[in-house]
Specification:
Helix content is about 15%, strand content about 35%. It has 3 helices and 11 strands.
Length: about 180
Protein backbone atom coordinates (compact mmCIF):
# COMPACT_ATOMS: atom_id res chain seq x y z
CA UNK A 1 0.00 0.00 0.00
CA UNK A 2 1.45 3.36 -0.90
CA UNK A 3 0.62 7.05 -0.55
CA UNK A 4 1.52 8.90 -3.73
CA UNK A 5 1.78 12.66 -4.18
CA UNK A 6 2.61 14.24 -7.53
CA UNK A 7 3.62 10.84 -8.89
CA UNK A 8 6.09 10.16 -6.05
CA UNK A 9 5.72 7.57 -3.30
CA UNK A 10 5.70 9.54 -0.03
CA UNK A 11 4.86 6.65 2.28
CA UNK A 12 4.31 2.94 1.97
CA UNK A 13 3.39 0.03 4.17
CA UNK A 14 3.75 -3.67 3.65
CA UNK A 15 1.96 -6.61 5.20
CA UNK A 16 3.00 -10.23 5.31
CA UNK A 17 0.33 -12.85 4.78
CA UNK A 18 0.54 -16.53 5.51
CA UNK A 19 -1.14 -18.78 3.00
CA UNK A 20 -2.75 -21.79 4.63
CA UNK A 21 -2.60 -25.12 2.85
CA UNK A 22 -6.13 -26.12 1.89
CA UNK A 23 -7.55 -28.86 4.08
CA UNK A 24 -10.60 -30.91 3.23
CA UNK A 25 -13.65 -30.09 5.33
CA UNK A 26 -14.75 -33.28 7.07
CA UNK A 27 -18.29 -34.28 7.83
CA UNK A 28 -19.10 -32.30 10.96
CA UNK A 29 -22.31 -31.89 12.88
CA UNK A 30 -23.43 -30.45 16.15
CA UNK A 31 -26.48 -31.28 18.22
CA UNK A 32 -28.56 -28.83 20.18
CA UNK A 33 -28.63 -29.01 23.95
CA UNK A 34 -32.34 -29.89 23.68
CA UNK A 35 -31.46 -32.88 21.46
CA UNK A 36 -28.83 -34.00 23.97
CA UNK A 37 -31.18 -33.54 26.91
CA UNK A 38 -34.02 -35.46 25.23
CA UNK A 39 -31.66 -38.35 24.45
CA UNK A 40 -29.18 -38.03 27.30
CA UNK A 41 -28.64 -41.79 27.84
CA UNK A 42 -28.01 -42.42 24.12
CA UNK A 43 -25.40 -39.66 23.81
CA UNK A 44 -23.69 -40.47 27.10
CA UNK A 45 -23.34 -44.11 26.01
CA UNK A 46 -21.91 -43.06 22.63
CA UNK A 47 -19.35 -40.81 24.33
CA UNK A 48 -18.55 -43.40 26.98
CA UNK A 49 -17.68 -45.77 24.11
CA UNK A 50 -15.29 -43.26 22.51
CA UNK A 51 -17.38 -40.85 20.41
CA UNK A 52 -17.00 -37.08 20.35
CA UNK A 53 -20.31 -35.21 20.55
CA UNK A 54 -20.38 -31.46 19.90
CA UNK A 55 -23.14 -29.42 21.55
CA UNK A 56 -24.06 -26.43 19.37
CA UNK A 57 -24.22 -22.87 20.75
CA UNK A 58 -26.90 -22.47 23.39
CA UNK A 59 -28.92 -19.49 24.55
CA UNK A 60 -28.06 -17.90 27.91
CA UNK A 61 -29.06 -20.13 30.82
CA UNK A 62 -27.96 -23.02 33.03
CA UNK A 63 -27.11 -26.42 31.54
CA UNK A 64 -25.74 -29.80 32.56
CA UNK A 65 -23.88 -32.31 30.39
CA UNK A 66 -22.59 -35.61 31.78
CA UNK A 67 -22.89 -34.29 35.33
CA UNK A 68 -21.01 -31.04 34.58
CA UNK A 69 -23.00 -27.87 35.19
CA UNK A 70 -22.26 -24.72 33.25
CA UNK A 71 -23.82 -21.31 32.68
CA UNK A 72 -24.07 -19.60 29.30
CA UNK A 73 -23.97 -15.80 29.44
CA UNK A 74 -24.57 -13.36 26.59
CA UNK A 75 -21.49 -11.35 25.63
CA UNK A 76 -21.71 -8.19 27.74
CA UNK A 77 -20.30 -5.87 25.09
CA UNK A 78 -22.24 -7.26 22.09
CA UNK A 79 -21.19 -10.27 20.01
CA UNK A 80 -17.43 -10.61 19.57
CA UNK A 81 -15.30 -11.03 16.46
CA UNK A 82 -12.27 -12.48 18.29
CA UNK A 83 -11.53 -15.49 20.49
CA UNK A 84 -8.28 -16.99 21.74
CA UNK A 85 -6.83 -20.37 20.86
CA UNK A 86 -4.02 -19.86 23.39
CA UNK A 87 -4.97 -22.75 25.69
CA UNK A 88 -2.54 -25.45 24.61
CA UNK A 89 -5.46 -27.81 24.01
CA UNK A 90 -4.87 -30.49 21.34
CA UNK A 91 -7.80 -29.16 19.25
CA UNK A 92 -5.92 -25.88 18.75
CA UNK A 93 -2.81 -27.54 17.31
CA UNK A 94 -1.64 -25.71 14.20
CA UNK A 95 -3.62 -22.54 14.98
CA UNK A 96 -1.69 -19.33 15.54
CA UNK A 97 -2.46 -16.09 17.34
CA UNK A 98 -5.33 -14.21 15.68
CA UNK A 99 -6.36 -17.16 13.46
CA UNK A 100 -9.84 -17.10 15.00
CA UNK A 101 -10.51 -13.39 14.55
CA UNK A 102 -12.56 -11.43 12.01
CA UNK A 103 -13.84 -14.42 10.08
CA UNK A 104 -15.72 -14.42 6.80
CA UNK A 105 -19.34 -15.58 6.94
CA UNK A 106 -20.36 -17.20 3.64
CA UNK A 107 -24.10 -16.87 4.32
CA UNK A 108 -23.88 -13.12 4.98
CA UNK A 109 -20.99 -12.57 2.52
CA UNK A 110 -19.12 -10.44 5.05
CA UNK A 111 -17.28 -10.62 8.33
CA UNK A 112 -19.51 -11.52 11.25
CA UNK A 113 -19.07 -12.18 14.98
CA UNK A 114 -17.77 -15.58 15.99
CA UNK A 115 -19.42 -15.65 19.41
CA UNK A 116 -22.65 -14.31 20.91
CA UNK A 117 -22.42 -15.93 24.34
CA UNK A 118 -19.70 -17.50 26.50
CA UNK A 119 -19.88 -20.04 29.31
CA UNK A 120 -18.36 -20.94 32.66
CA UNK A 121 -18.34 -24.22 34.55
CA UNK A 122 -16.17 -26.42 36.75
CA UNK A 123 -13.98 -29.23 35.45
CA UNK A 124 -14.39 -28.31 31.79
CA UNK A 125 -11.11 -28.21 29.87
CA UNK A 126 -10.66 -24.93 27.96
CA UNK A 127 -10.32 -25.35 24.20
CA UNK A 128 -11.05 -21.78 23.04
CA UNK A 129 -11.39 -18.84 25.44
CA UNK A 130 -12.74 -15.32 25.33
CA UNK A 131 -13.45 -12.51 27.75
CA UNK A 132 -16.77 -11.35 29.11
CA UNK A 133 -18.20 -8.76 31.44
CA UNK A 134 -21.61 -8.40 32.99
CA UNK A 135 -23.24 -5.93 35.37
CA UNK A 136 -21.28 -5.85 38.61
CA UNK A 137 -18.28 -7.81 37.29
CA UNK A 138 -14.94 -7.04 35.71
CA UNK A 139 -13.65 -8.49 32.46
CA UNK A 140 -12.65 -12.08 33.07
CA UNK A 141 -11.61 -15.13 31.09
CA UNK A 142 -14.45 -17.43 30.03
CA UNK A 143 -14.94 -20.38 27.70
CA UNK A 144 -15.97 -20.23 24.07
CA UNK A 145 -15.39 -23.96 23.59
CA UNK A 146 -14.64 -26.56 26.23
CA UNK A 147 -14.18 -30.31 26.54
CA UNK A 148 -15.80 -32.63 29.05
CA UNK A 149 -14.01 -35.97 29.06
CA UNK A 150 -16.46 -38.79 29.68
CA UNK A 151 -15.54 -42.47 29.53
CA UNK A 152 -13.43 -43.01 26.42
CA UNK A 153 -14.80 -39.97 24.57
CA UNK A 154 -15.64 -36.31 24.95
CA UNK A 155 -18.47 -33.83 24.90
CA UNK A 156 -17.47 -30.54 23.30
CA UNK A 157 -19.46 -27.54 24.53
CA UNK A 158 -19.28 -25.06 21.67
CA UNK A 159 -20.43 -21.45 21.68
CA UNK A 160 -18.58 -20.54 18.47
CA UNK A 161 -20.73 -19.56 15.50
CA UNK A 162 -18.83 -21.65 12.93
CA UNK A 163 -21.50 -23.15 10.68
CA UNK A 164 -21.19 -20.43 8.02
CA UNK A 165 -17.48 -19.80 8.57
CA UNK A 166 -16.07 -22.96 7.00
CA UNK A 167 -14.47 -21.03 4.12
CA UNK A 168 -11.92 -19.84 6.69
CA UNK A 169 -8.90 -22.18 6.81
CA UNK A 170 -8.51 -21.76 10.58
CA UNK A 171 -12.08 -22.95 11.18
CA UNK A 172 -11.51 -25.97 8.93
CA UNK A 173 -8.29 -26.73 10.88
CA UNK A 174 -10.21 -26.53 14.17
CA UNK A 175 -12.96 -28.83 12.89
CA UNK A 176 -10.38 -31.31 11.56
CA UNK A 177 -8.64 -31.32 14.94
CA UNK A 178 -11.95 -32.11 16.66
CA UNK A 179 -13.04 -34.95 14.37
CA UNK A 180 -9.68 -36.73 13.99
Amino acid sequence: IAAIKDGEVVHYASEEYEIFPKEALPSFSQISYDEYNANREKYEQLVKNGATVVIAPSLPGDYEVAGHKYTVTECGMSPLYCVSRDTGHRFTEGLKANDLTYLYDSKLDRLSPIINATFEGKDIDPVITSGNISIGTDWHSVLAMGEIKYGNGSFIINQLQIDDKTENPAVVKLINNIVK
